[in-house]
Design a protein that fits this description.
By secondary structure, the chain is α+β, with helices and mostly antiparallel strands. 29% of the residues lie in helices and 22% in strands. It has 4 helices and 3 strands; from the N terminus they run H-E-E-E-H-H-H. It has a 3-stranded antiparallel β-sheet. A hairpin with a 6-residue loop joins strand 1 and strand 2.
């Protein structure tokens, strides 16, 4: 096996979602309902997550709308990278 190069096969989920890598959210302007997609990876777990309402913009830090989102979804945001709320908080709010 000397001189052999082992190439890791790229995960088909990355290609299907159209993202450049794991844990890199991307806007999906042509999706009918969701505004973003991410292929989340935590340890050995890999999951495609679509999140965010299409057409809704986040709000600047410190505004009442921003605080309300974070308070309403705090429990789900705390679940980490494998939850849609975590990515919505990171990418939109």
């Amino acid at each position: 096996m000397r001189g052999r190069l082992v190439v890791a096969k790229e995960d088909s989920r990355l290609k299907n979602a159209g993202v450049s890598g794991y844990n890199k959210p991307k806007r999906t302007p042509n999706h009918p309902t969701k505004s973003h997609v991410v292929v989340a990876k935590e340890g050995d777990k890999v999951k495609t997550i679509r999140f965010g309402q299409q057409g809704v913009k986040g709000s600047p830090k410190g505004t009442a709308r921003n605080k309300a989102f974070k308070a309403r979804h705090a429990k789900n945001i705390a679940k980490g990278k494998m939850s849609a709320a975590y990515w919505a908080n990171k990418a939109k709010w």
